[in-house]
Design goal:
This protein is α/β, with parallel strands linked by helices. It contains nine helices and twelve strands. Strand 11 and strand 12 form a beta hairpin. The structure holds D-malate (MLT).
Length: 229
């Protein structure tokens, strides 16, 4: 499989698969919300845009500076998803949802995190070319996204790097066994802890808790469940 890793958002055109990664916390939260039976999770760029959906009965999730914006129902937390069952959800976050606007063309777009790692690997194996789009942090590389991208790459058969970032991430991830310990080194993990949201970091480090794949449609992310080879 040919793998390209964008360590920060950049314009993407591919006939293959794009995998969005924002471990802390957007893709972990999107995956968790769908696992807890949200009908769909619609990513939007701005708070103003999100608020318009409130009138249509959507639940609003998201963050700015780590905390829920005024008028939102829930934060961007994978621990806050119990109430989403049976609801349509709108999500707006600082980096994760915005990264999607860089995708100019793709056959399929999915969201990935440690929580659905094996399901994503199984699904992705049918594509020859895979772009891993890391959300990063305001234009900077985020350790947790880069690390996860390397872990994903390691799980793909016949790994071939399409850029040097893919080679470096692959090599970096190879030497790390303890996922949670690694996440705690990340700048954003420390920032979340300072906000009293450290439990989110521990949850985002768990592997294969939810065997579902959020797949992007015109309405937002919807779940593909129980995906097999
Ligand atoms: C983001 O999109 O920047 C993040 O998911 C931020 C966060 O949840 O704290």
């Amino acid at each position: 499989m040919k793998i390209y890793i964008a360590p920060v958002p950049r314009p993407i055109k591919t006939e293959g698969l794009v995998i969005l990664v924002d471990i802390l916390r957007a893709t972990s939260t999107i995956t968790s919300a769908l696992a807890h039976e949200a009908i769909l999770v619609k990513p939007v760029d701005t708070i103003e845009e999100a608020l318009l959906f409130k009138e249509q009965g959507y639940l609003l999730m998201g963050e700015r500076n780590g905390l829920p914006p005024e008028g939102f129902d829930l934060g961007n937390s994978p621990r806050e998803v119990r109430s989403v069952k049976g609801h349509k959800v709108v999500i707006s976050t600082t980096n994760g949802t915005r990264a999607l606007s860089f995708i100019q063309r793709a056959k399929v777009v999915i969201a990935a995190c440690f929580l659905n790692l094996s399901a994503v690997v199984t699904f992705a194996k049918r594509f020859e070319e895979v772009f891993i789009l890391c959300a990063g942090s305001e234009g900077e590389v985020a350790l947790e996204d880069f690390f996860f991208a390397g872990k994903l790459a390691q799980n793909f058969p016949g790994f071939q790097a399409l850029n040097d970032t893919a080679l470096i991430a692959y090599d970096y991830a190879r030497h790390i066994e303890n996922i949670e310990k690694n996440l705690w080194q990340a700048h954003h993990a420390k920032a979340l802890k300072a906000l009293g949201l450290g439990d989110d970091v521990s949850l985002c480090a768990r592997v294969d808790l939810y065997p579902i794949i959020p797949i992007l449609t015109n309405d937002g992310f919807v779940p593909l469940r129980g995906h097999s080879e």
